[in-house]
Amino acid sequence: MKLNIITIGDELLYGQTIDTNSAWMAQQLNANGWEVYEKIAVGDSKKNIIDALIRSMDSVDVVLITGGLGPTSDDLTMPTLAEFFNSSIVLNNEVLNDISSMLTPRGIPLNENNRKQAYVPEKCMPIRNKLGTAPGLWFNEKGKIVVSMPGVPHEMRGMMNDVVLPKLFEINNHEVLVHKFILTIGIAEAILAEKIERWEKNLPPKLRLAYLPSPGMVKLRLTAKGNNKEELEKLITQQVELLKPIIYNYIFGYDDDTLASAIGKLLRKHHLTLSVAESCTGGYISHLITEIAGCSDYFEGGVVSYSNIIKTNILEVKTESLNEAGAVSKKVVEEMAWGANKAFGTDFSVATSGIAGPTGGSKDKPVGTVWIAVAYKNKIKSEKFNFGNNRERNIIRASNMALMMLRNEIISEFE
Amino acid sequence: MKLNIITIGDELLYGQTIDTNSAWMAQQLNANGWEVYEKIAVGDSKKNIIDALIRSMDSVDVVLITGGLGPTSDDLTMPTLAEFFNSSIVLNNEVLNDISSMLTPRGIPLNENNRKQAYVPEKCMPIRNKLGTAPGLWFNEKGKIVVSMPGVPHEMRGMMNDVVLPKLFEINNHEVLVHKFILTIGIAEAILAEKIERWEKNLPPKLRLAYLPSPGMVKLRLTAKGNNKEELEKLITQQVELLKPIIYNYIFGYDDDTLASAIGKLLRKHHLTLSVAESCTGGYISHLITEIAGCSDYFEGGVVSYSNIIKTNILEVKTESLNEAGAVSKKVVEEMAWGANKAFGTDFSVATSGIAGPTGGSKDKPVGTVWIAVAYKNKIKSEKFNFGNNRERNIIRASNMALMMLRNEIISEFE
Question: Do A242 and A290 share a domain, yes or no?
Answer without folding.
Answer: no
